Amino acid sequence: MARKLSLLAPDWWDFTTLDDELLNDAARLTPDDMINLSRKGFKVIFYNTMEDFYLAEALEYISAWKQATSNNPSGICGPIGPTEHLPLVARLVNELKLDLSNAHFWGMDEWYVNGKEISITHPLSFERADRELCFDRIDKKLRMPEENMHFPKAETGKYIRSWESGVRCVVMQGGQGETKHWAFNDPVKREGKYKDNPPTPEDYRKLTTRVVDLHPITCMQNARTSGGGVVTGIPVQALTVGPVQTWKAEKVSIWHAGTHDNSFGQRLTAFMLGKKIVDSSVPMSLLADHPNVEFNYYRGGLGTCEPEMH
Predict the structure, then answer these.
(1) C-beta of residue 217 within 8 angstroms of C-beta of residue 9
(2) Using CA atoms, how far apart are residues 68 and 170, in angstroms rounded to an integer?
(3) What is the pLDDT of residues 138-176, one digit of tens each?
């Protein structure tokens, strides 16, 4: 039986092409139901306040960097979205006087325009945000060496090699977009060999750091969260860390504040990971096959899927 066309972008794959029964089951989940989706390799965690939520996210940086030694360098791969934890990371490093000389950081993604990564001077630059919100605020005596900071570039080879250098990635953090992506691992266009079915999980898992075409939903979301709604000001391509690098991380930690994806999306991916339902039209669902994944939720941002007029 042929898969449904997307309700949102018929030329693309996305979560609306899934079976309605699955979507409805996810929408009915209560917070207790979500907690009960935890299993070996997948854990659902709730935080009752925003302060606790973002502090916990920041502490993952500290924990990863505290493990770094000259013989066993280690680090974290971090997102832009959420970003609220980044100043807390800098404050904690300074207060704890944590020497980052053996620590590493990988940026997850970056915008791609006119054949190259967006300039660090551009207001939407992810690298700029990481530096201004976190790394530039760290005491100069404690700062990470520049060569230990890895940001994706149009020439992806150096970034990919940094994942193969023997440095441990203790944790890869991420947020979840409305396409149910991590980083910019979006669903693909419904064309060519993927006209009738999306990539198999096995094929999608083979993807490395690369340039991607962004799903229209992703462009709309980023216009909403970062561009004042001006969709025409959002790039339509980006560089993203791939599943190949993701599976090198010892843990994948996804942070749901309720500001990027909605009440339904936050439930859908938890349901698919908890039940080990893997479909590349929902890229986040591929993480069901990773050995150590945590979904972290701000309880106040979970909302409800009950219809209500406003």
Answers:
(1) yes
(2) 10
(3) 999 999 999 999 999 999 999 999 999 999 999 999 999
Q: Which of 248, 86, 107, 283 is nearest to 168 (CA)?
A: 248
What is the CATH topology of the domain spanning 67-188+197-298? Rossmann fold (3.40.50)
Rounded Cα distance, 267 and 162, in Å: 34
Confidence of residue 1 (pLDDT cuts 50, 70, 90): low
Name the strands in the sheet holding 42-47, side by side, starting at the edge strand that comes first in the sequence.
Answer: 42-47, 293-298, 252-256, 168-174, 74-78, 103-107, 149-150
Distance between CA atoms of residues 173 and 171, nearest Å: 6
Q: Which of 101, 243, 92, 102 is nearest to 166 (CA)?
A: 102
Domain ranges in the chain?
67-188+197-298
Question: What pTM, to 2 d.p., does this model score?
Answer: 0.96
38 by Cβ neighbours in 10 Å (0-12 / 13-18 / 19+) ranks as middle
